[in-house]
Amino acid sequence: MHNFNVFTGEPRKFDPTFKGPIYNRGCTDILCCILFILALLGYFAVGILAWSQGDPRKVIYPTDSKGQFCGQVVLWLNCEIGSYSDKPLLFYFNILKCASPLVLLEFQCPTTQICVERCPNKFMTLVKALLKEDDREYYKQFCKEGVDMTKVTPEILKDGLCPSILTPSKNFTRRCLPALETLKGGVVVVGNKTTFRDDYAEKNINATDFLEASKKSNVVVEARAVAMRIFEDYTQSWHWILLGLVIAMLVSLIFILLLRCLAGVMVWVMIIMVVIVIGYGIFHCYMQYASLKGQAGSDVTIKDLGLQTDFSVYLQIRQTWLAFMIILCIVEVVIILLLIFLRKRLLIAIALIKEASKAIGHVMSSLFYPLLTFALLSLVIAYWAITAVFLSTSSDPVYKVFNTTECMYSRDTCEPETFNSSNITAECPDAECLFAFYGGETLYHKYLILFQFYNVFLFFWCANFVTALGQVTLAGAFASYYWAFKKPEDIPAFPVFNSLGRALRYHTGSLAFGSLILAIVQIIRVLLEYLDQKLKGAQNKCAKFLLSCLKCCFWCLEKFIKFLNRNAYIMVAIYGKNFCTSAKDAFFLLMRNIVRVAVLDKVTDFLLFLGKLLIVGIVGICSFFFFTGKIKIVEDATPTLNYYWVPILTVVFGAYLIAHGFFSVYAMCVDTLFLCFCKCEAALFISRENMIRVIAAVVLDFIGC
């Protein structure tokens, strides 16, 4: 046998000792390895800096006008100086001021806000509260601390110590908002009243005014409200979600084991089951679509309905189920057409899967390697998320002047401690120094956006590195199987462990190099998405078109780099060369076999994707029937949820990740064997006739003839 140079066509001397991945190799891409280590040290430094400056409570708890967290202990120099632990709710002195456009600009209502133990449950004015002792005590809990209720009403209101009026309110995301209700006919009421009398201001307040103010104040907290409901659903269903993920893991493992023993049969069963599962989805959507016919409100369009936080509303209209049915029909037709046109190639793809099943059967430890990849990726994601939260909350409270009349100091920065003694209160009697937002003007705060950018970039780099490490490890293990002359005698005792050791010892720099290139492309895509969001309101069609073209080009570039990197890592695992040389060898080798790459390899990927789709479909349908309470046997065990789609989507997404983890081993095995076959064929190539004989012999061997 002669080794054949795929670029020059010059035959090399046959190496009878070559039995797979080369063991005598040296370190590759050392400079990139050093750069990666330095970048990681900088990443740790940014994390430590963020953790020392940030405070996640800023995104969890509401903040009063002094910048203190409701429901938390007040600390100064690590010493407790006060406690709001018994006052978890935020109360607005004048909720009507939240109807101001300022709320949309600065995300802060221009009114005094204090932490209270509970929301007011009845209507009361300050004028009437001062007449009775019981009312004074009740009213006092919604005033600033230390207020003297023996003062007359004008003095209390002038100093901004108490609100002029209390209205029945409810706790909404830890904020006291008016208890609004809409009666038949569209009449808005608060506590069964349509109007309120402010005795001090001597004017009536309509309930609709509270509705407008509540809507504006909800702009800031609406997303948090949905997040809280989703969090509640997770607390109610987390153990069932965990059980669903365990079932998905068992189904994936059983499927892989059956695929190893009955590859041909299982592939055909998989194809038929996918068609049946999608067909059932079409049938279910049609039945839901038909059952809503004639029901009140079911003919409303999604466009007319708009954005709703209660997503179950969308399932009550026919158009939603019609859209689901059309999407599933398109997917079904595409899959059937692909199966029809690729029916002759399916046999060869099944043969590749059979050979991959044999390889995995000899390297069973490869099935459990995705658990290590998953653990490392979880660590990377957790570090990135925690650092991002601490960076975003590492600002100082900023106070600004809020007023209702004309004032030259309006919206200027102020200090609450010295505000009352300043000349601002003399020139603007109604001005207040209130907490506005979190920010800062220190050197750290000026470069905060760069720290966030560095956090995102290192996240992409580390995540790509973990993925690359898994690919080169599995490639080295399966290459050991392919090049073993006597199986399983010539296969190393611990192929996965040996391959992982080689990758970390010799090729950390190469993995970092490939991951860096991919991370640069991904961060450019993020920047393009950011620019796209900024230019959405622009009318420049040329700029929009250019931006869309750039997004499309970089999307294609990312896909190409991922494909090239994957095959380059296989060459690194086998021959131990640096990244650029391995990428060049892999590229030209694939170009010489472009038809096979496009047909055989991709058809195999399609079949494996159908396997993942089948597992996700089975687990998704079961979780849908369980969480919607349609399984009578376990109906009592079904948790009560705000959004039943939350656990369903979580289980479906988790099931896909689990199935992808198992099937990624198969995909990497097929790609490695395919590339080894192409390399082996190049070594055996002498003439066109011999090449045809080699291909025929290998394919017949795969099929089992």
List its traits.
705 residues; four-stranded mixed beta sheet; 61% helix; globular; disordered C terminus
Fraction of residues in helices? 55-70%
Shape: globular
Low-pLDDT windows of residues = 1-14, 100-107, 182-190, 213-221, 684-695, 697-705
Number of strands: 17
Find the structural class using helix and strand composition. alpha+beta
Question: How much strand?
Answer: 5-15%
Spatial ordering of strands, largest sheet: 6-5-10-9
CA-CA gap between termini: 24 Å
Main sheet: strands, sense, barrel: 4 strands, mixed
Radius of gyration: 33 Å
Transmembrane segments: 30-51, 238-258, 265-283, 321-342, 363-386, 458-485, 506-528, 606-629, 641-659
Main location: membrane
GO molecular function: antiporter activity
Subcellular location: Cell membrane; Mitochondrion outer membrane
What report would you give on this structure?
- Strand 3 and strand 4 form a beta hairpin.
- The chain has 22 helices and 17 strands.
- By secondary structure, it is of the alpha+beta class.
- It has a four-stranded mixed β-sheet, with helices on one face. A three-stranded antiparallel β-sheet has the order 16-15-17. A two-stranded antiparallel ribbon has the order 1-2.
- It is globular, with a radius of gyration of 33 Å.
- Its main location: membrane.
What is the secondary structure topology, with strand pairs?
Blueprint lengths: L2 E2 L6 E2 L17 H24 L19 E4 L2 E5 L5 E4 L9 H5 L6 E4 L7 E2 H4 L3 H8 L12 H6 L6 E2 L2 E4 L2 E4 L1 E3 L5 E3 L4 E4 L4 E4 H55 L1 H29 L10 H4 L12 H24 L1 H20 L6 H24 L3 E7 L10 E2 L1 H4 L4 H4 L4 E8 L3 H4 L1 H35 L12 H12 L1 H27 L6 H35 L3 H14 L1 H34 L17 H40 L3 H16 L2
Parallel strand pairs: 5-10
Antiparallel strand pairs: 1-2, 3-4, 5-6, 7-8, 9-10, 11-12, 13-14, 15-16, 15-17
